[in-house]
Write a structure and sequence with these properties.
The chain is α/β, with parallel strands linked by helices and about 270 residues long. The protein is built from 9 helices and 10 strands. The protein has helices spanning about 45-55, 95-105, 115-130, 145-160, 175-195, 205-210, 240-245, 250-255, 265; strands at about 5-15, 20-30, 35-40, 60-65, 70, 80, 165-170, 195-200, 215-220, 230-240. Bound molecules: adenosine-5'-triphosphate. This is ABC transporter ATP-binding protein.
């Protein structure tokens, strides 16, 4: 008997007070795929990410992870990065990342003490080093550039070692040069971790360059008399950059010489 697919979206609909946003979504995604999501503004891409995150339940249909219903609340298995405001302004860079470990390892108090606290801080510092923020551990988010803030948001999302990473236009507010650096970083991290990624972008070339699969959301049915009666569907599902999936190469052979240590070794067992 073959194993259940990693993620299955089965006939999912989402509507708010009769306003149908998404309709008849059917999708199977294998572990380690990098899906980029594009579509007109307001067609429901972020709504789809919220369903994957477990922030919302679908009006109809089901989302299955390895054959079992996806947990209906956000948890450490899913990391998320938004275009802005992912990081906590009142915490230092180091604390912004270490807190993810404190909250998962000490869910009641939300704080660790003694050696465990130190271990969490060391682990967070190594990951921050990996994303290029080793020099900024004690700064606050307001003291960082936009690109550095998004590096921090990515580290924050990855510290709990999620198996799915959800990115909602994470580089939308960055300058083109900085975006390129962030693309390289994201691809490196994805290759190291073999995470399953869903990334919303308005930039088609970003979608084509980064993804192993491009999902286009669009409304197929439109009724001018009742514009909210129909939602968007996935109208194109385009395989891309498939060689990256097949390579399975360890990161050390993919990274240029002198690159900081691979993420896998920055993320010790909890
Ligand atoms: N909680 C909600 N209650 C009511 N309507 C909602 C809710 N969440 C989303 N919507 C509506 O669903 C539609 C899709 O919104 P969504 O943010 O998912 O689109 P999007 O494709 O991500 O847009 P953009 O590309 O502009 O970010 C919008 O019309 C929005 O107003």
């Amino acid at each position: 008997m073959s194993a259940a697919p990693y993620l299955q979206i089965r006939n999912v609909w989402q509507a708010y007070d009769g306003h149908v946003v998404l309709e008849r979504l059917n999708l199977t995604v294998e572990e380690g795929e990098f899906c980029t999501l594009v579509g007109a503004s307001g067609c429901g891409k972020s709504t789809f990410l919220r369903l994957l995150l477990g922030q919302e339940r679908p009006t109809r249909g089901e989302l299955l992870l390895r054959g079992a219903p996806l947990r209906s609340e956000p948890d450490a298995s899913r990391g998320v990065v938004f275009q802005r405001y992912s990081v906590l302004p009142h915490l230092s860079v180091l604390d912004n990342v270490a807190i993810g470990l404190e909250l998962t390892q000490a869910p009641l108090l939300g704080r660790l003490f003694g050696k465990r606290k130190q271990a969490a801080r060391d682990q967070a510092a190594r990951l921050l080093e990996r994303v290029g923020l080793g020099h900024a551990l004690h700064k606050y988010p307001s003291q960082l550039s936009g690109g550095m803030q998004q590096r921090l948001a990515i580290a924050q999302a990855l510290i709990t070692r999620p198996s799915v990473l959800l990115l909602d236009e994470p580089f939308g507010a960055l300058d083109p040069g900085i975006r390129k650096d962030m693309h390289a970083l994201l691809l490196e991290l994805w290759r190291e971790t073999r995470l399953t990624v869903f990334m919303v972008t308005h930039d088609l070339s970003e979608g084509f360059n980064l993804g192993t699969r491009l999902l286009v959301f669009d409304k197929v049915r439109i009724d001018p008399q009742a514009p909210q009666a129909y939602g968007a569907r996935i109208t194109y599902d385009i395989p891309l950059n498939q060689g990256r999936l097949a390579s399975g190469q360890p990161i050390a052979s993919l990274l240029p010489k002198g690159t900081p240590q691979p993420l896998a070794s920055s993320m010790e067992p909890l």
